[in-house]
Amino acid sequence: MYIRSFADGNGDGVGDLRGLKDRLEHLAWLGVDIVWITPFYPSPMFDFGYDVADYTAVDPLFGTLDEFDAVVDEATRLGLRVVIDIVPNHTSIEHAWFRAARSSKTDPKRSYYIWRDAPADGSHPNNWVGYFGGPAWTYDEASGQYYLHLFLPEQPDLNWRNPSVIEEFDRILRFWLERGVSGFRIDVAQALVKDEQLRSNPELSPVDFDADRHTQWAAFAHDHDVTQDDTLAIFKRWRAIVEEYDGILIGETYVLEPDVLAGMLRGDGLHVAFWFKTMHMEWNAETIAQTLAAPLDSGSDEIGWVQASHDEPRPPTRFGGGTRGRRRSLGLSTLLLGLPGLPFLYQGEELAIEDGIVPPEMKADPVGGDEVDAGRDGCRTPMPWSAEPGKGFTTAPTPWLPSSHDPDDTVAVQRGDPSSPLHRTRQLIELRRQLDHDAPVEWLDPGTGLVAFRRGDFEFFLNAGDDELTLHTECGALLYSSITPDRVGTISSSRVRLEPDEAVVLR
Ligand code: NOJ
Fold first, then answer.
1. Which residues in the chain are classed under CATH 3.90.400.10?
2. What pTM does this model have?
3. Active site residues
């Protein structure tokens, strides 16, 4: 859950720990096992908490350490485990380490970050660009050198080749594990260690700094800034620490090459690695099947399956909006929840809501927000709990982002309707519990337009085409439909009809 937008417990218009604690029951009812909480640490909020100023405290905007403990206690009571976000690639410029580091070239904390002299020709220390666009270097006038940042200038990158940084994070991980968390979601896991000589990346096309952030990033082969082999040693070290507490290490691994992803899981690396290609695929049966099979084919079972997050347009929006977008999202969930690994839901995905509408004057995200790049505000609008003003999210007259969702798309309304996305999702999670998790995935080829696989006694089908289709099957029962709950029952004719975008589970 994205803490700013989940539930506001103190009426200031921003989600917080108190609000979260009171709404955990929803997640337990839904069948969730683990709650991942996005950063709640002290932060100047240039990137809404992904710019951390103190890794072992709580920002007053989100509550107190006692309130954090209360969240863990309540989660435990409900049978949920808590995973928190750790942001090790960069700190905030307001972190005490960076304040010290920039105070002088000889400060002991200087080498916690990555500094380089300005080249005589007026260029940057190398050609790296940031994920948010623009050069990855900012000149610090006071101390007379450039520092590296793969995100905003307010998010300086840590130097993971410095053993002191490694030790600091051992301590930080233990601090939270001792407080009862069950592990970490590692922000930008693929980027921690940089090339030792900071070599320039091969240029694929001339970079245009007026282009959108994705186009700028795509102008280079990222040989030297991300996915460096030495990162694995850090994952191994952390895995040993979290395993002392029976915890889990989940990498936000933004790499779209399955072999590179597999390398991060191998040999006691991460427990789970996110596979993000599902967020960047075209909607046709062949592409969907290939996208799901690719990480499994490269030998990784421990995939974190996602179609939504606080960083990308919501799936119903991406898939064309309206009934079609919503059905596609539920259809894709059906497949994702049938695969080996760990499926994730992003708050509101269980309601199949589209992006919220954020007028330009309320734009909050530091990136995007134009015709080319929608930015991230739309997927971050407050969770719609109930129909009243404030949507049950807040009692404040103005939440930090507006909520434009239809009054029918609330938890309260959908809970009363068995055919709602909320109930479809809940039933799917229940069904997942019946799967034999050791059963391999066998891909089926049932014909054009269909994506299908078998796991043990279960078969999963999605009609990704535009027309109604009939599939022939030897299965005896239909256990689940992503559209119509009352289709569940015996299959008498060896045939099952599928509407466009409908997914079913058979046994
Ligand atoms: C990934 C996070 O999900 C995103 O919200 C953030 O802006 C970047 N990492 C940088 O920390």
1. 96-148
2. 0.97
3. 187, 244
